[in-house]
Design goal:
The complex is a heterodimer of chains A (284) and B (304). Chain A is an all-alpha fold and 284 residues long. Helix content of chain A is 73%, strand content 0%. Chain A has helices at 2-32, 42-52, 62-81, 86-106, 110-141, 146-150, 156-159, 161-174, 202-225, 231-251, 257-281. In chain A, helix 9 (202-225) packs across helix 10 (231-251). Chain A starts with a helix and ends with a helix. Chain B is of the alpha/beta class and 304 residues long. Chain B contains eleven helices and 14 strands. Chain B has helices at residues 20-27, 63-72, 83-88, 119-145, 160-170, 172-178, 184-187, 190-199, 240-251, 267-275, 300-303, and strands at 9-14, 41-42, 51-55, 58-59, 78-82, 98-100, 110-112, 150-154, 201-207, 210-220, 223-231, 257-263, 279-287, 290-298. In chain B, the strands form three sheets. A seven-stranded mixed beta sheet of chain B has the order 8-9-10-11-12-14-13, with helices on both faces. In chain B, strands 2-1-3-5-7 form a five-stranded parallel beta sheet, with helices on both faces. A two-stranded antiparallel ribbon of chain B has the order 4-6. In chain B, strand 10 and strand 11 (223-231) form a beta hairpin. Classes of the chains: A mainly alpha (284), B alpha/beta (304). At the A-B interface, helix 2 of A face strand 2 of B.
Chain lengths: 284, 304
């Protein structure tokens, strides 16, 4: 029963929170650029508008993939917030991303093709850090279950500082923000038009947007796990990290994909794997 | 709920502007004017855009580009012509290569005067276009519910071209079902279609001046053969096909039987005809990929 209520709260609260966070993001970005910026609820206005638009497709099946992207993004978050298995969460999450990429490929326009390629590269670059974080948490708490990790007596960040930094590193990749916004980008930067989402319109684009909100909440949830011992510290860490991601987004130009791979893998291997090696030798 | 006035996404196209108006359009995005306050985003992708903003006059080379961009935008959409050149051709209107303002190729909703148009005027124009968008959306919705603006009349030979385009568009989904892109409706040439006008009655469904559906029929030995019922993919599931069928049946009240056919895997078509009272009575093999199912409905006379 408790699980059911948690799931229900998650299903309703996650998109609301995700939408508010991305509204906050846009407001913050505008302030950093010396603008006033859109209202906080702007992402919701956008999605409601997109629901009302005509749906143009290159191939009808492209929208099915997007539907599954949304379903699996919701599913992986649901597993996470009901205290499921962390590995399963990560794999379901990867599957969601794969559906998104397939949708982009199916649309078969040059721009969405390039975007899909790059989205795959982004997935390849963030996956090691996410998996290593899960392994690190297992090594400290002795369980892959999210509910066990949350109830572990002690701050994980103390034992896993390297993993935390490598995880923080991939936030920009996962949120598709500069300097790693190579698969799709803000509307302002148009050199590959809108990358992977170029060929989606109307309801499909709205679904992508909502799936991104669920993703956002899930990734911040993963970040929260590092500080789960003290909930206030966890929430603060999420907010500060997100603020830093937005700040970095506004400060940096985009890098090439080679750089993305090199940087994110070195961070994951040196800091993340190094952290795990150290853990291995620390007697507990 | 009309969220269009809260989140208008624009796409900006520079037709053959002197860049004066372009710079003013871009100025709207800067911190001084900051149009994102109103949720306005410059997308650069026609498939995400609601409003097409065009600066500069239309010339022979970009005529097709402009129409292409417009065609790629999902409905409801609006067009704003920025500056004197986009509105009327401006000082370039007499040039040998200039076709005139944007309205020579597209239906323009809002004209923003000025040379160059001031950012305030551009923002005003986009805000005006929001009203147009909301109105268009209302129309779009009322069309999908009541179909008030639908008009079904007999088609003439001058409609042949439009009907052929529509036919090829509508039969695409059939071709996908059978993975057979050699279906006869997809292969028909304009001459063949024009020749059909001699033997068959063509009906067309017109919405806002655009043919969105068509059907043709011929009476042979008291049996009315109805064929090539096509509805534009965007306007499907709105009851247009049903109305066309009813109209074509009414055109021939004397017919003993009404007959249609479709492919054996076209479940939706078979379901559609069954709902209209047609019953399958025979099938024939047309290729190794496809069987043809014939459906029949007795005419009014026999019922009485």
């Amino acid at each position: 029963m408790k699980t059911f209520i948690a799931l229900l709260v998650y299903l309703i609260a996650a998109p609301v929170a995700g939408g508010l966070i991305s509204g906050f993001d846009r407001k913050l970005t505008a302030r950093m650029q010396g603008r006033i910026g859109p209202p906080l609820l702007q992402p919701f206005f956008d999605v409601f508008k997109l629901m009302d638009k005509e749906e143009l497709v290159v191939r009808r099946s492209q929208n099915f993939y997007i539907l599954f992207f949304l379903i699996f993004a919701v599913f992986s978050g649901g597993l996470f917030f009901t205290g499921g298995d962390l590995l399963l969460v990560i794999f379901a999450f990867t599957l969601a991303g794969i559906f998104f990429v397939l949708g982009g490929y199916k649309a078969s326009s040059p721009y969405s093709f390039v975007g899909s390629n790059r989205e795959l590269l982004q997935m390849v670059s963030y996956e090691p850090a996410v998996l290593l974080s899960a392994i690190g948490m297992y090594m400290v708490t002795g369980s892959f279950s999210v509910s066990d990790i949350i109830s572990f007596p002690g701050q994980l960040i103390v034992m896993l500082p390297g993993l935390f930094i490598s995880f923080f590193f991939i936030l920009a990749v996962k949120f598709r923000k500069s300097p790693f916004d190579i698969s799709t980008s803000h509307h302002g930067h148009q050199e590959i038009v809108k990358g992977i989402t170029t060929e989606f319109s109307g309801r499909a684009l709205a679904m992508i947007e909502v799936a991104h909100w669920y993703e956002l909440v899930l990734v911040l949830g993963l970040l929260y796990l590092f500080f789960a011992y003290k909930p206030a510290a966890g929430v603060a860490a999420c907010l500060i990290s997100y603020f830093l991601v937005v700040l970095i987004d506004n400060v940096f130009a985009r890098v090439k994909w080679q750089m993305l791979m090199a940087v994110s893998w070195s961070a994951a291997l040196l800091l993340g794997f190094g952290n795990i090696l150290v853990l291995y030798f620390i007697p507990r | 709920m009309p969220y269009f006035n809260k989140s208008p996404w624009i796409i900006h196209y520079d037709a053959s502007s002197c860049n004066g108006c372009d710079i003013e359009v871009l100025a709207c995005l800067t911190p001084v004017y900051d149009v994102e306050r109103f949720g306005i985003i410059n997308t650069g992708n026609p498939k995400h855009a609601d409003i097409l903003v065009i600066t500069g006059s239309v010339n022979e080379q970009n005529k097709e580009v402009i129409q292409n961009i417009y065609a790629q935008m999902p409905d409801p959409k609006a067009v704003v012509a920025i500056g004197a050149c986009a509105s009327s051709g401006g000082i370039f209107s007499e040039c040998y290569n200039v076709g005139g303002g944007v309205d020579s190729v597209l239906p323009v909703d809002v004209y923003v005067p000025g040379c160059a148009a001031r950012p305030e005027a551009i923002i005003d124009g986009v805000v005006k276009a929001l009203g147009v968008l909301t109105e268009k959306r209302r129309k779009f919705k009322s069309m999908s519910s009541g179909l008030e603006h639908l008009e079904i009349t007999a088609a003439g030979i001058e409609d042949a071209e439009q009907i052929l385009i529509l036919q090829k568009l509508a039969f695409q989904s059939e071709a996908e079902i059978y993975n057979d892109f050699n279906l006869s409706p997809l292969k028909q040439t304009l001459e063949e279609l024009k020749a059909d006008f001699k033997s068959k009655l063509f009906l067309k469904a017109v919405m806002d001046g655009r043919i969105v559906g068509s059907v043709r029929a011929s009476l042979e030995d008291g049996v009315l053969h109805i064929g090539r019922l096509v509805v534009h993919p965007t306007y499907q599931n709105l009851g247009i096909g049903r109305k066309l069928m009813r109209a074509v049946e009414l055109e021939f009240p004397a017919a003993g039987d009404y007959e249609v056919f479709t492919g054996h895997k076209s479940k939706r078509n078979i379901f559609f005809y069954k709902q209209l009272g047609y019953k399958p009575f025979k099938s024939a093999r047309v290729s190794d990929k496809r069987d043809r199912i014939y459906l029949q409905k007795p005419g009014k006379k026999e019922e009485e």
